Amino acid sequence: MKKHYQILIIGAGTAGIMTAAQLKKRDPNLEIALVDPADLHYYQPAWTLVGAGAYDKQKTIRPMGSLIPKGVTWIKEEVVRFDADNQAIQTNKQGTITYDYLVVCPGLVNDYSLIEGLAEAVEKGVVCSNYIDPEYTWKQLQAFEGGTAIFTQPSTPIKCGGAPQKIMYLACDYFRKKGIDKKTKVYFPMPGSVIFGVKIIADTLLKVIERYQIDFMPLHNPIRIDAEAKIAYFKPTNAQDNHCFVTSDDQQTQVLAEGVVAMPFDFLHLAPPQTAPKFVQTSNLVNAAGWLDVDHHSL
Ligand SMILES: Cc1cc2nc3c(=O)[nH]c(=O)nc-3n(C[C@H](O)[C@H](O)[C@H](O)COP(=O)(O)OP(=O)(O)OC[C@H]3O[C@@H](n4cnc5c(N)ncnc54)[C@H](O)[C@@H]3O)c2cc1C
Fold first, then answer.
1. Whose CA is nearest to atom 35 of ligand 1?
2. What is the structure's pLDDT at 237?
3. Residue nearest to atom 38 of ligand 1 (CA)
4. What atom of ligand 1 comes closest to residue 47's alpha carbon?
5. At what angle are helices 163-178 and 134-143 packed, to 10 degrees?
6. Which helix (H) or strand (E) element contains residue 9?
7. Which pLDDT score is estimated for 239?
8. pLDDT tens digits for 54-98?
9. What is the pLDDT of residue 244?
C-alpha cells in the first residue's frame, strides 16, 4: 500500500470529488488520493425537493466508487488525526500517510447538543429536518392539517444558507394546494438580522415572505425545544442592522424573562446546529471558533 501522495484529499463529498477531478483535468500525472470511509455519496441539494415530495431520495444516492475520478486512488478509511507539522495524517486502518499538499473537506457535522431538547425532539419525531431525514419532512408535511408551522435555523454556520427557507416556501405552496393555508400560520424565526446577506436577493425574498404571509422574525435564536409540550424557545440575538425586522402578531406567543419567546407549534422544521468534525476541531489547523483556518480568498 502506498504511503505517500502528492495530493491527499480528506472527504469525497462534493468538495473532495470536484477538487480531485479539477486537478486531474489540469494535470493527469498528479498523484492524488481521496480518503473517505463512506460507501455512499449523497447529492444533498436535492434533499430540499425530497422534503417537499417532489423528488425521490434514492436518486440522490450513488455508490461512492462510481464517482471517484479516473486515475485517483480511493483510500476507504477514516482520518482520525492530522500531523500537519510532519505533513501526515493518521487513518483508522493504514495509520500514517504523508503528502506534499493536503486538501481538507470532510464536511460539517450536526451537533444536537447546542439546542436543549433537540436530540429528544428528533428522536421522538417532533421536529423534522431536511438536513437529517428529508423523507420524514415530507411525511410530517403530509400529516399536518393546519395550525402553527415554524421553520427555523441555528446561530452556527450551516451548509446551504438557503435550505431552511427553501423548504418553507415549498411547504407554503403545498399548504395552498392542500387547501390548509387559511388555517395555517407560518413563522420564520431566525438568529440573523436580515433574511439573506445579499440585498437584491433579500429584497426579493421579502416579497415572497409577504406573498405567503409568513411572519418573519429576525434576531430570534432557537435555544430549546420542549418535545412533550411542543414548544420552541427563542432568545433575542443582538444586531445593529435590523432593517428587515417584522414583529410577530401571534396571540399564543409568550415573552418570558430576558426576552425569551415561547412559541407552541404543530409543525417544526429546523436546520440543526453544525460544527466542524471533532478531528478537525481538535487539530492545530483551526481558528478560535473551531473551524479550519483558511485564507478566505484563496482557500
Ligand atoms: C437540505 C440541503 C440542501 C442543500 N441545498 C443546496 C443548494 O441548493 N445549493 C448548494 O450549493 N448547496 C446546497 N446544499 C449544501 C451542499 O450539499 C453542501 O455544501 C455540500 O454537499 C458540501 O460538500 P462537502 O464535500 O463539503 O461535504 P459532504 O458532501 O458532507 O461530504 C463530506 C465527506 O467527508 C467524509 N468524511 C467525514 N469525516 C471524515 C473523516 N474523518 N475521514 C475521511 N472522510 C470523512 C464523509 O464521509 C463525506 O463523504 C444543501 C445541503 C442540504 C443538507
1. 11
2. 86
3. 106
4. 1
5. 30
6. strand 4-10
7. 47
8. 999 999 999 999 999 999 999 999 999 999 999 999 999 999 999
9. 36
**Residues of the chain where predicted confidence (pLDDT) is lower than 70:** 239-253
Mark 135-172 as b/e (b = at least 16 C-beta within 10 Å): bbbbebbeebebebbbbbbbbbebeeeebbbbbbbbbb
- Report which ligand 1 atom has the smallest distance to the Cα of 107: 27
pTM above 0.85, yes or no: yes
Task: Supply the pLDDT for residue 296.
Answer: 86
Q: Specify the pLDDT at position 270.
A: 98
Burial class (CB in 10 A: 0-12, 13-18, 19+), 104: buried
Ligand 1, atom 47, residue with closest C-alpha: 38
Between the CA of 125 and the centroid of ligand 1 the distance, in Å, is 24
Looking at residue 242, its pLDDT comes to 41
> Which ligand 1 atom sits nearest the alpha carbon of residue 64?
49
154 Cβ closer than 6 Å to some ligand 1 atom? no
Q: To test the ligand 1 pocket, which listed residue (36, 49, 278) has its Cβ within 8 A of the most ligand atoms?
A: 36
The gap between the terminal CA atoms of the chain, to the nearest Å, is 30
Query: How far apart are the C-alpha atoms of 205 and 119, rounded to whole Å?
Result: 31
Ligand 1: centre distance to CA 159 (Å): 7
Asked if 151 and 187 count as a contact pair (C-beta separation under 8 A), the reply is yes
**DSSP assignment of 180-233:** -GGGEEEEEE-SSSSS-SSHHHHHHHHHHHHHTT-EEETTEEEEEEETTTTEEE
**pLDDT on residue 263:** 95
Nearest atom in ligand 1 to the alpha carbon of residue 18 is: 25
